Amino acid sequence: MKLTKKHGLFKRIAAATLVFVLLFSLASCKDEKPEDPAVKYNADEIVLPDKKVAILVAPEAQFPEDYKAAKELESEYPNNIVIKEYKDSRILEGGDPGIITFSKELANDPDIGAIVYARATQYTRNAIYKAKEINPEIVTVCIEPEEDIEEISDLANLVYCVDWAKAAEDIVAQAKAQGAKYFVAFSISRHISSNPLIRSEIDAFKNACDAQGITYIYNSSVDTNNTGGISAAQKYIDEAVARLYLNKTVEGKDVALFSTDSAVQSTLINQANSRGLIYVCPSFPTAYNGLGEVYEIAKPESITDVAAYIKSAKDAVEADNSGTARLSIYKTPLASILLRAAVHSSFDLLGGTMTAENMADKATVRALVAANSDDFSITAYGTKKNAFMAYQPGFETLR
Length: 399
Hints:
By secondary structure, this protein is an alpha/beta fold. About 45% of the residues lie in helices and about 15% in strands.
């Protein structure tokens, strides 16, 4: 069909209009700002309470992410947060453990309204009991209890922990992706016998291995509380891995190593490096434990900048010409997320905006805002109304 001048003019106008619409749409997209997570999850504004929140934290050498996250929160809320650092909980000394001594001290301080246990290590149960004996009104919030989570939940106002069913699936899937045919899980009787949370973690690993077609092996290890302490626990791991090969329980290099004990992570990595095995994750899903004990990895200015830490970790691993391990690293600052949620929830509990009746909504929203990711999930722990399990998937292969 022959086009007239009128048809040609119409086509030019239509084309110009289309270009204008496209340019306007692109400009609108460019100017569009990310949705505020507090708005997205309908979170209440944070109201700072009259009383202060104390964060009890282990040394940086024991739990670096927790320690740095606590320091950053202290800088963010200098008039509302105080930090007490107790000694490495894995090293036994005479007298009351620091976590108990500080809990009693804080409970006696009229300016302190809440205690957040950045990692509820051993003796937290007694620490809470002693604190509430002194001040029944003091608010206590725990993260990832090392002791019986059922008892901790009965004593504390609020508990956040890892959703180990989801974490185990993620960890084992990463091990599988790196070629694992065996998955060896080390734990200690104190963890297994006294805490259903850690028992469920071990069960979750077995279930995940069964689903992935990986041979699961459980090994009961030496407790750091026993004679010999940390060095004895580390020596046991070296000997146990050797026995696995001597007894032909495992063969070849496609063996993934895991332990619920934070004290032996460097030993697992060294074993993996010397034998060409697989190391995916430390005892808690974090980028900062384990690898940082073996390699010199620069910590970022903000502990939540895991991407910067991973880049530094890759450089350190690549520079290691002698190591042969297949290594992975966790990409989410989960400890930081849960600590931020715990602190903000403590503000809410002290201000009266979080109660037993609305805790399920309020506590989960505080965690969702802290995570600000669609991949993050949080659910109730069993039938407990004040305990919540959280996780966000994501591992990255380093070598």
